[in-house]
Description:
heterodimer; A: alpha/beta; Rossmann fold; nine-stranded mixed sheet; two-stranded antiparallel ribbon; 11 strands; B: alpha+beta; Mth169, Chain: A; CATH 3.30.1330.10; Phosphoribosyl-aminoimidazole Synthetase, Chain A, domain 2; seven-stranded mixed sheet; 43 strands; 32% helix; globular
Amino acid sequence: xxxxxxxxxxxxxxxxxxxxxxxxxxxxxxxxxxxxxxxxxxxxxxxxxxxxxxxxxxxxxxxxxxxxxxxxxxxxxxxxxxxxxxxxxxxxxxxxxxxxxxxxxxxxxxxxxxxxxxxxxxxxxxxxxxxxxxxxxxxxxxxxxxxxxxxxxxxxxxxxxxxxxxxxxxxxxxxxxxxxxxxxxxxxxxxxxxxxxxxxxxxxxxxxxxxxxxxxxxxxxxxxxxxxxxxxxxxxxxxxxxxxxxxxxxxxxxxxxxxxxxxxxxxxxx
Amino acid sequence: xxxxxxxxxxxxxxxxxxxxxxxxxxxxxxxxxxxxxxxxxxxxxxxxxxxxxxxxxxxxxxxxxxxxxxxxxxxxxxxxxxxxxxxxxxxxxxxxxxxxxxxxxxxxxxxxxxxxxxxxxxxxxxxxxxxxxxxxxxxxxxxxxxxxxxxxxxxxxxxxxxxxxxxxxxxxxxxxxxxxxxxxxxxxxxxxxxxxxxxxxxxxxxxxxxxxxxxxxxxxxxxxxxxxxxxxxxxxxxxxxxxxxxxxxxxxxxxxxxxxxxxxxxxxxxxxxxxxxxxxxxxxxxxxxxxxxxxxxxxxxxxxxxxxxxxxxxxxxxxxxxxxxxxxxxxxxxxxxxxxxxxxxxxxxxxxxxxxxxxxxxxxxxxxxxxxxxxxxxxxxxxxxxxxxxxxxxxxxxxxxxxxxxxxxxxxxxxxxxxxxxxxxxxxxxxxxxxxxxxxxxxxxxxxxxxxxxxxxxxxxxxxxxxxxxxxxxxxxxxxxxxxxxxxxxxxxxxxxxxxxxxxxxxxxxxxxxxxxxxxxxxxxxxxxxxxxxxxxxxxxxxxxxxxxxxxxxxxxxxxxxxxxxxxxxxxxxxxxxxxxxxxxxxxxxxxxxxxxxxxxxxxxxxxxxxxxxxxxxxxxxxxxxxxxxxxxxxxxxxxxxxxxxxxxxxxxxxxxxxxxxxxxxxxxxxxxxxxxxxxxxxxxxxxxxxxxxxxxxxxxxxxxxxxxxxxxxxxxxxxxxxxxxxxxxxxxxxxxxxxxxxxxxxxxxxxxxxxxxxxxxxxxxxxxxxxxxxxxxxxxxxxxxxxxxxxxxxxxxxxxxxxxxxxxxxxxxxxxxxxxxxxxxxxxxxxxxxxxxxxxxxxxxxxxxxxxxxxxxxxxxxxxxxxxxxxxxxxxxxxxxxxxxxxxxxxxxxxxxxxxxxxxxxxxxxxxxxxxxxxxxxxxxxxxxxxxxxxxxxxxxxxxxxxxxxxxxxxxxxxxxxxxxxxxxxxxxxxxxxxxx
Lengths: 270, 982
C-alpha cells in the first residue's frame, strides 16, 4: 500500500506548521514541513505529495488584508526550475485528484486565489473580511457539519468543537448567486453553531458575523477544503478548554478526525 | 508621478474597523455627539511610474469586498477626512509588504508608504476633528496627520515619507582635556549618561602615553573618536552594566551600618550559587546569568530557556510601537541564547494608571486609556504575528504608573541539549570567524535608546526616539536561523538590542579575544549615517552571528534563498582590542579589558527608616454582598478577558491550561501549562507574581510575597516544586540621591531590602534565580510635579509538570465536592485591596513563612500527582472572598462556606477573614471519595471549610453562624467582568 505523503508549506509568516504536520502524522501520513522558498526554487515538488496543507499564521503580516500578498505570490512568483507559477502547480495537483486543506490563513489564501469555491478556478468570488467585533479573538466554537456536503474531510462527522484565532474571518460573497451556489452544492461543510449545534448568527457563538454562519467551505469535488477554526489545535484531549471538567478524557483530540478523513480518502484512491 | 491609492469597503458592508474607531473616539471624548459616523479606509502612496491598473488591483484590492480609487478620492461623503501616516524613517510594515507585493508582480522596486484615513461624519468642527486626530488617532512623535474637508481632498497630494539626510558621514575627534565641569557638560550634551567619575576614567585612559603610542600604530590620534566615546558610553550605561546593582552600598538601618558589595553578586547570584551547591546532582540550572537568557534542564533531550524584559520608556512615548518592540525584542533573547532556541511562549505583565483617569494630565504624558490600548495592541501584533502563544500575564493598576507605565514582556524557548553533537547552550567563537549581521537594515532607529527616554524629546528627530517592531521580518529571520543552526552553519549567535552592534559584537568578542568591524559594510536603510551611528543603532530584527570561514558560502546562500539579508561585517580576532574601521581607516581601537571592566564602581548610600502607620480598626461593611461585588470590580481584581482573548494563547498546538478556564472559559487561570513537544506528555508551567502595593509598607515583604505568589500559582496547576526556577525583574524609581532626587537613599534602601528578601526566600524555597533585568529610572519629572512608580518586582516562574494530564484548574468541578483551605489566615490587611478600597494603607503587610509554605506546596503536588484534587486556586488580591467567588462562577457551581472552619489567628472578625491577604494559602476542592486520602496526606494543614452546592449561589456563613454573604453567581460574575469590558 502506498504511504500517504502530506506537505505542510511554511515561511513568510506561517505559524501553525508544526502542529499541522503533527496532526497529519497522528492521522497516519508521512509529513514534511517545507519552506515556501524550497518550493519556489524547485527543490520540493508538489508531484511528490498527495495532501497539501496550508497552515495558519500571518503571511506577510496580513498587511494588505489577510493572505492578500500570498495571492499575489501564488499568481506571479515563478518556480526557478520550471518557470511555472505556484498557482499552475497547484492546479495540476488538484487535477491529479489530490487534496488540499487550508486552515485560517491557509483558508484565506485559498479564497483569495480563487481556489475556493473554485468555479472557475482563479476567480475570487468569496472573501474573509474583518470580524464584526474588529478584534482578533481566540475562543472555542461549536461547529455543525453539513452531512450532505461533498467535503471529504468532514465525512462521518456531525459536529466539532475547535478554537478560532483570527481577526479577519467573516465569510462574505461577491453576490447572492454565489451564496446560492454554495447552499445548493452543500459547499459550506462547517457552520458556527449554538449550544444545540444549530447554525447561528449570534455573537460569540458565531465569532465574526459570517454570512450563513459559514465557518468552512469546500469546492464542488469536496477535495479542497478551507476553514477558519483550527482542527490541528485540538490534537490532544487536553487541548479542550474545559478538559479538566470531563470525567473521562477521550483518547485523542477531536480535530484529528479531519486529518484522518483526509488520509482515509487518499488511501481509497491511491 | 506617484500614485495615491485609496481602498475601502464597498458600500453596504459593515465597517467593523470604523465602528471600533468610533467606540474608541467616544470613549476618549465622552461629550461628543454619539451619532457621529466613522469610516476607515487604507491609503497607499506608490513612488514610481508605469504601473498597470491590473497590477494595482491585484496588489491592493480585494474585489469581493473593496472598492479602489487611484489618484482620486474614493468618496467625498464625509465631514472630515483624517489621514494618519508615518513620518520619514519610521518603520512602515504595511508599506514594506505593499512594496514587496509590487515586486512580486513587476520584479521592480517601488517604494510604498501606507496611511490610514478616518472619514468622520457628523456635527464636528475642524478643531474637534484635529483634537480627535491628535489625542486619539495619531501619535505626533512618529506620525503625521492631515485633516481635510470634502473640498480640500480634491487637491490632496501624495505623501512621500522619504528620509533625506544630505549628510556626508564623518568621524570626529573629541577632546577630553577638560575640567570637571566641562566633562559633565560634554556627557550631557552628547547624551552619554556618564557621571563625572566615569568621564574622568575615560579621560585618564586616553591621557596615558602608552595608550597614545599604541593608537599611533593603527593611525589614530591622541584624542578619542566619537565612535570610541559613544561605544564606551553605551557599554558603560546603566542599561548594559547594571551599575546600581553592582555598586558598593552603605546600608543603614536602626543605627546599624552594613556594606553591600554588589547587590547582584551578593543576593541574586549568591542565592543561585547557594541553591545549586545544595542541590548537587538534582541541580536543574544549565546556564545562568551568562547569556541573553537563563537555561534550565527540561528533559534528557531538551533545555528550557527563559527571559523577561521591560520596555517602559519607549511604551510611555509610543505605547503601540514601544510594546511591539518590547515583545519582538525579548523574543530575540532566548533566540540569541547559546546557539539559539525555538520560541514556545510569551508572557506579559503590564502596570498602568486607571484607564478612566479623569484628572488633568501633566505635559508629555499620554492618557492611561491610550497607553492601555496601545500596549495591548502592540503586544497583540508582536505575539500573534510571530506565532508564539501568549499564555500568561496580568495587569496591575496604580495611578503612580502615570509617571511611567511598565511593560514586562517575557519569552521562553526550547533547545535540543545538543545540536550536531555540540552543546546548544554554549557559544564558541574562534579568531578568524566572520562577524555576520542578519535580518533588518540599520537606520537612525533607537540611537541612544538607553538614555534618550529620560530627556525632553526633539520634535524634529522622532525617528531616533521611537521604533516599531516588524514581526514578519523577524519571523523570516528566525525561520532561516533555526535551519542554519540545525545545519551547523554558525558557531554563536546573539541579538542586537540596546547598544546595537557595539553591544552585540562587543560581548561576543570577549569569547575570541577581539574583533574588527568594518563599519561601511552593514547595509543601511538610507545613506548618510555617521560611523558611530551605524555602530550604536538599535534598529530592530537583527541578529549577530559568528560564522566559520568554511561555512560562510553555505550560510549566505541559504540566507538569500530564504529572503533574509545577511552581510559579513568583519571578523573576530584575538588582538585584545575592539577595533572598528571605516573605509579601511581605523576609527575605534579600545582594549577589551578597558571597554568591559574599566567602568568605576559607584559608591552609594541607603538609609532605611520605615514609616510606621499602624492599622486602623478594620472597617466593617454594612452590606457584605455589595462590598464583595465592589471588591470584585476593583481594577486589580476584575476580569482581564478583554485583553486575554485578543492574544493567541494556543498557536503551536500545545496549550493545556489556558489563561481562561472553567465551564464558560472565562475563569482566571492561576498559571499556564503548555506541551512544547507534541509527541511528549511532559509539560512546561509558567506563572508570575507581582504585588507593588506592599512596597508602601516594606519592599522586603513585597518581594517575598511576589515570589510566593508566583510559586503558589505554579503549584496550583500542578507544577513540580522540585523542578522550578525564577526570574526577577526590578522596576524602580531612581535610587540614587541627587538634587532632583532627595529621597534616593530611601529608595535605595527599599532596593537593598528587596534583594535581601529575594535571597532569603529563593534559598528557602530552593528556587534558583536564572536571569533577570532591572530598570532603575521610572520617574516622571515635569513642571512642578514628580511622579515615581511604586517599587515593583515581577517574579516569573518556569518549571515542569511530569504529565500534563494531571494538571488542575481553578474552577469548582462537581456538586458535593468538599472545599478545603490550605494555610493559616492572619490579620494581614496592610496594603490589601480591601484597605485600598477605603484609602487605607496600614502596616500589617503579609509575611511569608517559607518553611511551611514549601512543605505545603510539596504535599499539594503529591496530591495532584495522585489525582486527589478537583480544583486549586490561589488566594491573592482580595483574599478568601475573591478566590471563592472566582472558583464558583468559573465552575458555574455554588459553594456553601463556614468561616468558623477557617484556621486563623485568634480575634479576627469575619471581614478580616474574608479579605486578609495572608500568603501561601490555596483553596482546593476534593471529591468525597478522595476526602480521606486527601486529609491524611495534609495531616492538619488542610481545613474543610465548606462544600460545592448545585445552586448558583455563593453562601458564606459568619463565625456566629449568620449568613454573611449570599449572592447569585451571575451577579458576582457581572461585577467582576464589568470594568474592562471594552
